[in-house]
Amino acid sequence: MESEWIDVSVPIKTGMVRWPGNPPVRIERALDMDRGDNSNVSAITMGSHTGTHMDAPAHFLRSGGGIDELPLSLAIGRARVIQIEDMVSVRPGELVPHKIRRGERTLLKTNNSARCWQMDSFIEDFVYLSAEAAKYLVDRGVRMVGIDYLSVGGYKKDGAATHRYLLEAGIWIIEGLDLSRVEQGEYVLVCLPLKIAGGDGAPARVVMRPLRPASRSIESGSTAP
Fold first, then answer.
1. Of 214, 224, 215, nearest to 188 (Cα)?
2. Distance (Å, rounded) from C-alpha 218 to C-alpha 220?
3. Cβ distance 204 to 51 under 8 Å?
4. Of 194, 104, 192, 112, which is closest to residue 142 (Cα–Cα)?
5. Which of 46, 66, 92, 209 is 20 to 30 A away from residue 33, measured at CA?
6. CB-based burial of residue 41 (10 Å sphere; 0-12 exposed, 13-18 middle, 19+ buried)?
7. What gap in Å lies between CA 184 and CA 83, rounded to an integer?
8. Which residues sit opposite 109 in a β-bridge?
9. What is the pTM of this model?
10. Tens-of-pLDDT digits for all 225 residues of the chain?
């Protein structure tokens, strides 16, 4: 049913929070029926890493592929949400008990979902994926990693290193998720970024639905049962 789907994307709006140095978001009416035009048409200015978005390998790798090369088989399928309790960063020690398996799509729910999306100013001390945890996920062979703020890496620590570890290993990244209405567990994930030719990233609409036992035949994109 339609009501089973959970939208974990953040709305794109003028003046919304952005990564420091990235283009601001502006949405303005280029054509406006209230001004006498026969239709409404908006002009939208924003960076490619606005709100809920995906990073392509080209974001940090000179020879990396663009967002238009994202395999659809990766963008739709089974994913697992892991609740993170650490208030500073995601560390290997907190991931080990979850026995992450090769081929998984791993979404990290941190304190960011409840805290950071409540304001339009940038939060510097958001919970990020440490470089050590990124290496751990690479070793586990995951296919996708998602996190609930504007970057998988920290603002002043592990930013570039975390991205490169994941992207060099062929792991696609979702950033800017709002997982506040999602509990730890398994879901069907649909994540479709804009198809920008050669793009280093693109905003995405991301929705999830709890995976029930009867639904386990849905394509998982992993070797996990």
1. 215
2. 6
3. no
4. 104
5. 46
6. exposed
7. 6
8. 83
9. 0.91
10. 456 999 999 999 999 999 999 999 999 999 999 999 999 999 999 999 999 999 999 999 999 999 999 999 999 999 999 999 999 999 999 999 999 999 999 999 999 999 999 888 999 999 999 999 999 999 999 999 999 999 999 998 989 999 999 999 999 999 999 999 999 999 999 999 999 999 999 999 999 999 876 554 444 444 443
Q: Give the alpha-carbon dihedral of 116, 149, 85, 107, to 10 degrees.
A: 140
Residues whose CB falls within 8 Å of the CB of residue 63, separated by 6 or more in sequence, listed in order:
none
Assess contact for 208 and 6: CB atoms under 8 A: yes
Strands in the chain per DSSP E: 6-7, 26-31, 41-45, 53-55, 76-83, 89-90, 105-109, 128-129, 144-147, 172-175, 185-193, 201-210
Catalytically active residues, by annotation: 59
Question: What is the DSSP secondary-structure string of 141-196?
Answer: T-SEEEESSS-SS-SSSSHHHHHHHHHHTT-EEEES---TT--SEEEEEEEEE---
Instruction: Report the alpha-carbon distance of residue 111 to residue 26 in Å, rounded.
Output: 28
What's the fold here for domain 2-215? Answer: Glucose Oxidase; domain 1 (3.50.30)
* β-bridge partners, 209: 188
- Cβ neighbour number for residue 64 with a 10 Å cutoff: 17
Please report where in the chains the tokens 């035009």 appear, as a residue: 37
